[in-house]
Structure formats: structure tokens, C-alpha cells
């Protein structure tokens, strides 16, 4: 495994999956150029981007090994090619638990509340703002209840153990989204504490949506 | 990494994510006992199962290293502890592509058409049969269009390269679900060919829902 060459991250400031990859890149200390695609304007479906990435989604990471897609696959690649500091623990059972906690977010929560799904709920099913908020709250709440139990069992300061991991790459963006949608968080104290502990790390903080070049008013924020 | 001990798979015959794990276990040649949880009766939310698996989902795999959850995390564990035959290729970029193709199913398609989501669409949003079928067709069709392009680029007989991989563990169940819901497949010839090639392998065929002990009429089927 060789370290990745020059990296270009195709992302969008408020994309939760892009936020995950930024956290991983920052924890690894890898420099990267950002190319923003405005999802609200449908830029991810522009022909030149589709030619590069037929999925028409962000994030995608251009490397000297080609274009990588899907946030978890990208993060596993970074962990294999640039193993220090590791984002997965050593033992197979521990690695499975970390991957399961990440999947509980990436497979069971996030896909149900991203922009394209919420758009369809409104446009094709006529779900109004209230119905969409109930939908969001239900799936985030169900997933967070499961994660709360897993973090109580496996967390020691961070969501898994006592150091940043793949779980944090997924958890910090998911908590950001939950707050953005006004989801009640009183039932998930261990989850919130672990996520805030991770979010306080300067490398994680630098990946925050508000600090990306394409964020509204980003230039006005302190560096 | 040590080979896993006695294995107990908590599953349900028609669960797509359980089907993935059965395929992986069979490809690896690992024996396992099955404990079925009838999702239609809500058995996955019974207190004794929730005590074992707070996520209240299937599949879960009981191993001598503890209970593993989330199909992709389980399959990665099996690949690490029982590496022959491998379900991931060797190079980091190839591994990232296989994981991305699997995630295109596991994160972008499957979560939108599983039983609990379709239930909510009907119960809370009043979506009728026609609206639910349109929803299913839209998300499977969108995801399959992306996968078709990836398989055309990376497949050589199978979905990735010329041997069974993690992609097939996800693709075969997803095609089964697409057919079950009557999704039009004319636009995805490379995908269908790759999936049928994989499904023809006896180890993959043995994982089919209709051949599980809890399937209706399973006892009447030829072995």
C-alpha cells in the first residue's frame, strides 16, 4: 500500500457524507484541494461531473489511483494507504464493531434524510414541512437510540474507545444534521458527549460545514 | 486474525441484508446455525433479542468474539478472519472500488426500500401501493443506473473482475428485491448478467431466500 498522491475532494459544504471524508483527511493530516458542487443547483448532475462520477453524488476523491466514491470506501482507502493515525482498531471483532457503528449511521440514518430523499417526499408524496420533520426525527431518533446503547457499551471518551475513529467521522456530521433539523437529543447523552468530544479536536473542527470555502459567508468567519 | 468459532446467524428468509451475509458465509465455506426472526411479526423487537442486539435488526452473527451486526461489517470481519477465498481484491484502489459498489447498494438503494421504511410511507404519509411502487422503482432505478456504469467499467464476467466479491454479496439480493417489486430491468443488461452469473454459483444459490428453513413451503423444495 502506498500513500495517496495529490488529492482533490469533490464536495459540498453541507453534505454530511462530504463532511465525513473531510474529517478523515484532516485526522490523517493529508492536504487536499476542494472542488465544490452546489447540490441545491443540481451541479452534481452536470454532464462533466457525471462523466467523472456516474453516481452523480458527492463526495468523490480524485487520487493518483483514480476517482474514489462513497464516503466509507474513501475513508477505508485512506486508512489502508495512510495508516497513521489509524481510524480502525486492531482486533477483527473491534474493527467489526467500529464498522457496524459507522454503518448504523451511513446505512440506517443518513440515506433517509439526505436532500434527494426529502425532495421526493415533498414533490412525489406531497409530504409537507411537518410530515418531513416527523420523518427525519423518527429515523434519526431510531438510529440514535441504537447508537446510544453501542456508545455506552464501547465508548471511553470517544464513541468507540479512547481515540478518534471511523465512528467519529460519521457521528459528528450526523449530530450536525440532527441539530440542523431540530431533532430532540435529550435521550442520547452518551452519544452527544462523545460527538462533542470529537468535534472539539481542531482537525475535526476544521471540517465543519461553516468553515468550507463554499459555505455562505465563509470568508467572514475567523480562520 | 483467527478464524471465527461456532457461528449463529440471526436472520430472516426474505431480509436482503441477511441474504448478503449468507452468501459470504457460503462462499467462505463456513458452517452456521440459523435463528430466524419473523420481521412481519415484529420478532426483531422482542425484548430478549433487543437485549442481544440493541439495533433490533437482522442480520446479526454470534461469534466467539461477540455478537456482530450490520451486514457489511460482518462480511468484512469474515474476510479478515477467514481470508480464503477473498471477497476484496488486493490493491487499495481496487478495494475502494469494490467497497464503493457495495455501498452504492447498501447505502443508496437498500435503506430506501426495506420493510420498515415502506411501512412508514404507508402508515404516516398515506402512500398507497402505487405511490410506494413508484418510490421503490425510482430509488432502485437510480442506483442501478450508477451501478450499470460501474459494472461496465470494472466487471469481467462478475460485477467486479472475474471472481465473486463483496459486490456480488450485495448485488444478488438487490436484484432479487428489484424483481420481487416488479422493477423494470431493461436498462441494466450488464448488471443483470453479472448478478445472474453470481447467482448461478451453488454457494450463492444456497443462500436464496426460498431455500432458507423459515421460508414458506421451504420443506417442500428440493434440497
TrEMBL record, chains A, B:
GO terms for molecular function: maleylpyruvate isomerase activity. This is Maleylpyruvate isomerase. InterPro entries: Glutathione-S-Trfase_C-like, Glutathione-S-Trfase_C_sf, Glutathione_S-Trfase, Glutathione_S-Trfase_N, GST_Zeta, GST_Zeta_N, Thioredoxin-like_sf. It comes from the Bacteria. Residues 91-217 form the GST C-terminal domain. Its EC number is 5.2.1.4. CDD domains: GST_N_Zeta (cd03042). Belongs to the GST superfamily. Zeta family. The keyword Heme does not apply. The keyword Isomerase applies.
Amino acid at each position: 500500500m502506498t500513500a495517496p498522491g495529490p488529492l482533490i475532494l469533490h464536495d459540498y459544504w453541507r453534505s454530511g457524507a462530504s463532511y465525513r471524508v473531510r474529517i478523515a483527511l484532516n485526522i490523517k493530516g493529508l492536504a487536499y484541494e476542494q472542488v465544490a458542487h452546489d447540490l441545491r443547483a443540481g451541479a452534481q448532475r452536470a454532464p462533466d461531473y457525471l462523466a467523472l462520477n456516474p453516481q452523480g453524488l458527492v463526495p468523490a476523491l480524485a487520487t493518483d489511483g483514480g476517482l474514489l466514491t462513497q464516503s466509507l470506501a474513501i475513508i477505508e482507502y485512506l486508512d489502508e494507504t495512510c495508516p497513521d493515525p489509524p481510524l480502525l482498531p486492531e482486533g477483527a471483532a473491534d474493527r467489526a464493531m467500529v464498522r457496524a457503528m459507522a454503518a448504523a449511521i451511513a446505512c440506517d440514518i443518513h440515506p433517509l434524510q439526505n436532500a434527494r430523499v426529502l425532495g421526493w417526499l415533498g414533490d412525489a408524496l406531497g409530504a409537507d414541512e411537518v410530515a418531513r420533520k416527523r420523518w427525519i426525527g423518527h429515523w434519526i431518533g431510531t438510529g440514535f437510540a441504537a447508537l446510544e446503547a453501542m456508545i455506552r457499551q464501547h465508548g471511553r471518551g470517544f464513541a468507540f474507545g479512547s481515540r478518534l475513529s471511523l465512528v467519529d467521522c460519521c457521528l459528528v456530521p450526523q449530530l450536525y444534521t440532527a441539530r440542523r433539523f431540530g431533532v430532540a437529543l435529550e435521550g442520547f447523552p452518551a452519544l452527544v458527549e462523545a460527538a462533542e468530544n470529537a468535534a472539539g479536536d481542531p482537525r475535526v473542527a476544521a471540517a465543519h460545514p461553516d468553515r468550507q470555502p463554499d459555505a455562505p459567508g465563509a470568508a467572514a468567519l475567523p480562520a
